[in-house]
């Protein structure tokens, strides 16, 4: 075992987008039980430092794999197709139109019910796209197409954050 | 000397020797020390049999002009007569500036507005909250050493889950100043859950409601198979029983149409209010009486009146509870159990309100004043290696988000709160002007968007960036948070390799040197004593390092080539020879050399241990 191994190897999981969350959490805890600095509190500075590096690495892997989007982006990167969200913002016109419509709908929404309806619609889209990501990564092995989906999903997640913020305002007001 | 007798390589001199490790609850109103003895955790009493040490320190000058300090009950009994020099609830000032304090005019102290952290002017000079806390910790350390008639291996010290980096660092500094080896800073609610034995078989979500003297914490813990995961934390670092005392005192003064004018008056009426509040937990009504400079204050108060006065504060605590549940996306009825911690949870009004909110009777079996110290003692015992079979593992999270100031006074969040720690994150920034050669890095902590609403942790500058067009430089800022939740930050320009780093000491900045000086000056008087003590501590540290190395060699010595083995053996022998000479600096540098010389070995051992664990896992699965 090597600290530079990829997240899946590190946690002893199959390198796939489909992932059992309970299995991931169990693997993370089992690994932390081995490497956490608290296991070496009585063992001197050298062990402490090594344990710290490992614990940081194991937490990083867990945080990345538990988030579907980060996991998908990571798999694309491992397949040699980095998502490069910052530099690659060119999206199909159809998708951008859809985004604009959604954003207008959020701005013009009058009341909680309309925002919730929008939330349902966007969440449905998200789910459909994640299903496509599963197909592209785990069956078709088409990382390039998956990376495009991941970029679209990043837009969608940002929109969902704004929708959630609005819904929280309604909750706070009530 | 016997302590450092070098045994045959691979043999620990006495593998069954227990290490004395204690848990310390450094509380706002009182502090306790506990240890595992005869297989179970218990609080250690003082000579009079009292386990509680009031968190009070009085500085005074005697007839001969010598400065002295009184700690605990002795200080408490003097606080009405000498409020200026008797510092109570100092935990509220830890890592805080004068401008952070809520209504400092209500407190009887002469505050000194020092950069970074507020000071209190006393007859013995200006005292920082770190020094005052160190007095309390040193007193508890002494108590533990007297109890066991031995030196301490280390201590677990508890902090509110809500404490930010500045407050945690201040606590660790105080412990260091008191000569304690800090095994871990542990969140108070987590300690309480351990004390209730929730690590044994309890599964699911638990809420820890901790209303102490000065702080309120609500934590949501997810328990499964010996792993404590802090799912979310929240609270209010300025809400507690002290506030209820103030409200009750104000109400009594208003009823009697009297005023507390002098510092003595303010203190007396608060002491009386606290007594009355405690009485009202068992009785339906009670008298509040005390002598003030304007005459005798005497008022009758009922439990209902207290409940009505406290209601806004209890509601405030429940608002924090709601926020934490919403953060974690959890409904109150999904919480499996509620643990009550802190003396203020003895108030029936608090128990009723919390019970109603969660729809279940909260756990109150253990003494709410002791639970935190007991849990810390259990953790300390395990960390010291006394409980080898122990399954206890705490996976903690960052209590408050960490970020950087960006253009326009906005905060760019780098590590969001509730991220499991230890962790490391990096983010790239760039220059915004042509030819810019320096970049100011301002590290903040908090949840708000604007810098002025967050806590400023540190500022540093990355200088010497080669002149480039705006936006061409790639400056990577890296955050590292250790298992105690303490932060270090570094910045590096990727093209030129220019770098700068800080260990985030809060800007009040007690440097390591200052701490060391205070340690040397503070707790002993004679110069010879100080030297002795420093040497003794260095020897303990050296022995710790030697013992760890021997154990490691015994287990995994075969990983080393004969040359590597010889190097490590030489480093060990060097410590042994320097130890007898009594040269402090030489011993410290030899110990450091051994730590550095065994780092590669430690990394190899970790790799092997993980390989073995994974092999075990596969066998299990077959």
Q: State the total count of DSSP E strands of chain B.
A: 28
Indicate the CATH class of the largest domain in chain A: Mainly Alpha
Say what the CATH topology of the largest domain in chain B is.
Nucleotidyltransferase, domain 5
**Percent in strands of chain B:** 25-35%
Helix proportion of residues of chain B, in percent?
Answer: 25-40%
Structural notes for this entry:
The complex is a heterodimer of chains A (174) and B (622). Helices cover 74% and strands 0% of the residues of chain A. Chain A is mostly helical. Chain A has two domains: 7-66, Helix Hairpins (Orthogonal Bundle), CATH 1.10.287; 93-173, Monooxygenase (Up-down Bundle), CATH 1.20.1280. The radius of gyration of chain A is 20 Å and the shape is globular. Chain A starts with 6 loop residues before the first helix and ends with a helix. Chain B has 622 residues and is α+β, with helices and mostly antiparallel strands. Chain B has four domains: 21-188 and 372-388, 2-Layer Sandwich (Nucleotidyltransferase, domain 5), CATH 3.30.420.40; 241-309, ATPase, substrate binding domain, subdomain 4 (Actin, Chain A, domain 4); 402-512, Sandwich (Substrate Binding Domain Of DNAk, Chain A, domain 1); 524-609, Substrate Binding Domain Of Dnak, Chain:A, Domain 2 (Up-down Bundle). In chain B, strands 1, 2, 3, 4, 11 and 12 form a six-stranded mixed beta sheet that branches. In chain B, strands 18-13-14-15-19-22 form a six-stranded mixed beta sheet, sandwiched between helices. Chain B has a four-stranded antiparallel beta sheet with strand order 21-20-24-25, with no helix packed on it. The longest helix of chain B is centred in the last third of the chain and has 30 residues, at 527-556. The model of chain B is unreliable at 1-16, 506-510, 522-526 and 618-622 (pLDDT under 50). Chains A and B meet through helix 2 and helix 3 of A and strand 19, strand 22, helix 11 and helix 14 of B.
């Amino acid at each position: 075992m090597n600290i530079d191994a990829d997240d899946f190897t590190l946690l002893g999981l199959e390198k796939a987008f489909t992932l059992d969350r309970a299995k991931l959490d169990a693997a993370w805890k089992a690994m932390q039980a081995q490497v956490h600095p608290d296991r070496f509190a009585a063992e001197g500075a050298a062990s402490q430092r090594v344990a710290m590096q490992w614990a940081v690495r194991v937490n990083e892997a867990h945080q990345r794999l538990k988030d579907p989007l980060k996991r998908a982006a990571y798999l694309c990167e491992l397949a040699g197709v980095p998502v490069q969200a910052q530099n690659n913002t060119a999206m199909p016109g159809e998708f951008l139109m859809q985004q604009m419509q959604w954003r207008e709908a959020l701005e013009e929404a009058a009341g909680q019910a309309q925002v919730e309806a929008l939330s349902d619609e966007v969440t449905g889209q998200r789910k459909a796209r994640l299903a496509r990501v599963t197909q592209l990564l785990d069956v078709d092995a088409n990382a390039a197409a998956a990376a495009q989906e991941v970029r679209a999903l990043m837009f969608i997640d940002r929109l969902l954050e704004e929708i959630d913020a609005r819904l929280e305002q309604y909750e706070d007001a009530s | 000397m016997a302590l450092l007798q070098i045994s045959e390589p691979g043999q620990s001199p006495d593998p069954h020797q227990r290490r004395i490790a204690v848990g310390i609850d450094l509380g706002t109103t009182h502090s306790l020390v506990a240890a595992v003895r005869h297989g179970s955790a218990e609080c250690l009493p003082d000579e009079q049999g009292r386990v509680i040490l009031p968190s009070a320190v009085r500085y005074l000058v005697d007839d001969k002009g010598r400065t002295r300090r009184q700690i605990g009950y002795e200080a408490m009994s003097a606080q009405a007569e000498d409020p200026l020099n008797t510092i109570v609830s100092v935990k509220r000032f830890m890592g805080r500036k004068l401008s952070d304090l809520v209504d400092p005019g209500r407190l009887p102290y002469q505050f000194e507005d020092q950069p970074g952290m507020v000071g209190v002017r006393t007859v013995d000079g200006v005292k920082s909250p770190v020094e005052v806390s160190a007095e309390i910790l040193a007193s508890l350390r002494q108590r533990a050493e007297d109890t066991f008639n031995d030196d301490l291996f280390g201590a677990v010290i508890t902090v509110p889950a809500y404490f930010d980096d500045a407050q945690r660092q201040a606590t660790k500094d105080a412990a260091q100043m008191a000569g304690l080896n800090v095994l871990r800073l542990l969140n108070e609610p987590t300690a309480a859950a351990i004390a209730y034995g929730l690590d044994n078989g309890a599964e699911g979500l638990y809420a820890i409601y901790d209303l102490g003297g000065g702080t309120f914490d609500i934590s949501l813990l997810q328990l499964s198979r010996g792993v404590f995961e802090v799912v979310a934390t929240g609270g209010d670092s300025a809400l507690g029983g002290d506030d209820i005392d103030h409200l009750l005192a104000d109400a009594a003064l208003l009823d009697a149409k009297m005023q507390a004018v002098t510092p003595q008056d303010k203190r007396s009426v608060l002491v009386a209010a606290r007594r009355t509040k405690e009485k009202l937990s068992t009785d339906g009504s009670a008298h509040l009486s005390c002598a003030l400079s304007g005459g005798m204050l005497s008022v009758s108060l009922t439990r209902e009146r207290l409940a009505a006065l406290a209601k806004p504060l209890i509601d405030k605590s429940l608002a924090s509870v709601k926020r934490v549940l919403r953060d974690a996306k959890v409904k109150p009825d999904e919480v499996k159990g509620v643990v009550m911690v802190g003396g203020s949870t003895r108030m029936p009004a608090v128990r009723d309100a919390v019970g109603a909110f969660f729809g279940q009777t909260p756990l109150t079996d253990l003494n709410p004043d002791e639970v935190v110290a007991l849990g810390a003692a259990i953790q300390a015992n395990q960390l010291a290696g006394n409980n080898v079979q122990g399954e206890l593992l705490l996976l903690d999270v960052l209590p408050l988000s960490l970020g950087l100031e960006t253009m326009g006074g906005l905060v760019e969040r780098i590590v969001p709160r509730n991220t499991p720690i230890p962790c490391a994150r990096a983010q790239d920034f760039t220059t915004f002007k042509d030819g810019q050669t320096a970049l100011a890095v301002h590290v903040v902590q908090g949840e708000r968007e604007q810098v002025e609403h967050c806590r400023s942790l540190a500022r540093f500058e990355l200088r010497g960036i080669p002149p480039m067009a705006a936006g061409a430089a790639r400056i990577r800022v890296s955050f590292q948070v250790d298992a105690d939740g303490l932060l270090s930050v570094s910045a590096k320009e990727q093209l030129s390799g220019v770098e700068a780093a800080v260990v985030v000491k809060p800007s009040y900045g007690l440097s390591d040197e200052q701490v060391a000086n205070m340690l040397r000056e503070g707790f002993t008087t004679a110069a010879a004593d100080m030297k002795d003590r420093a040497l003794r501590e260095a020897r303990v540290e050296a022995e710790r390092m030697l013992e760890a190395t021997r154990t490691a060699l015994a287990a995994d010595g075969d990983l080393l080539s004969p040359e590597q083995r010889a190097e490590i053996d030489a480093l060990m022998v060097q410590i042994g020879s320097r130890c007898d000479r009594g040269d402090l600096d030489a011993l410290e540098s030899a110990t450091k050399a051994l730590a550095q010389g065994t780092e590669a070995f430690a990394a190899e051992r970790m790799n092997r241990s993980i390989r073995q664990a994974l092999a075990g896992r596969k066998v299990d699965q077959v």
